[in-house]
Amino acid sequence: MLRLLLPLVGGLLVASHAGADDAKKKVVLIGIDGCRYDAIEYSQAKYLKELARDGAVSAQCDVLGERKTGADTSTGPGWSSVLTGVWADKHRVFDNTFKKHNIGDYPTFLARYTDARPNAKVAAFVTWAQFRDHVFGRTAGCEYLVDGDKFGYELADRVVGDAAARSLANTDLDAAFVYFGNTDSAGHGYGFHPKSPKYTNAIEAVDQYVGRVLKAVRSRQNYAREDWLVIVCTDHGGKGRGHSLGEKEPEIRTGFLILHGPSVAKGAITGKTFNVDVAVTALEHLGVPVKAEWKLDGKVVGLKR
Ligand SMILES: [Zn+2]
């Protein structure tokens, strides 16, 4: 890989952080629930659009995969696939009940990362109880901040934005999942559509938190020696006021991926992408070799080779 070198500083050649091989690789995954990419484009979401403009984008990210798994186009299976890198016939989350799930055998990329690097610091900033109870369980770093179902995701998202920004600015985090849920609530209440103003307003509110998260990352004391991969994605889209049973509805089963950072190959990602690609791409960036025995379904997307 080409390496840019800054002039001699204090007698040492210092590599710039622009994709330097020795920069500390880090990941922040921003999950926006029930978020349609056409609605991001139609909205005034400044930071998300900047990430897309300066990063790699797939507006055709399939949330269900190419084989029958029995999964619904709902939140449980959606985020389980994103976070584990396998489809529902393996993680066995078919709906939001998580009955008989198999995330123990197919853990999240954060858990795989801390298995490989016991000293790594990870965090999942979440507000949906199912994340705490089933997806992250007792694995390291689960920060269940407030009950979004009880107090509403408008408040929950604000709490997540604050906590994630504080942690990312001031601690030695290596990888994080930051979850925002109010877009989905707005879609159910007012319609999942670019021309549904309360839906795009919800996206713009999340966008402000995304801006705070990015600012926090860039303010880090060691930022110049770090290589942050920012990934933004969703669990499903929506149509009308719902998203369940959306296998044949492109507005529902099509998500998106935005990747941004020094290691990202800028531009539109050619070919189809899948939600399971997120975990595999994150592990690749973090330098964790994916073992065949893990039987992951995703592939690496959007990174320079
Ligand atoms: Zn959802």
Outline the low-pLDDT stretches.
1-17
Strand content range: 15-25%
**What string gives the helices and strands in order?**
EHHEHHHEHEHHEHHEHEEEH
Q: What is the count of structural domains?
A: 1
Query: What small ligands are held by the chains?
Result: zinc ion
Principal-axes geometry comes out as globular
Task: Output the CATH homologous superfamily.
Answer: Alkaline Phosphatase, subunit A
CA-based gyration radius:
18 Å
How would you summarize this macromolecular structure in one to three sentences?
The protein has 305 residues and is an alpha/beta fold.
Task: Summarize the SSE layout with pairings.
Layout: E1 24-32, H1 37-42, H2 46-54, E2 56-62, H3 75-84, H4 88-91, H5 109-116, E3 122-126, H6 129-135, E4 142-144, H7 148-151, H8 153-170, E5 175-180, H9 182-190, H10 197-218, E6 226-233, H11 250-253, E7 254-260, E8 267-268, E9 273-274, H12 277-286
Parallel strand pairs: 1-5, 1-6, 2-8, 2-9, 3-4, 3-5
Antiparallel strand pairs: 2-7, 6-7
Helix pairs in contact: 3-12, 8-10, 9-10
This protein binds zinc ion.
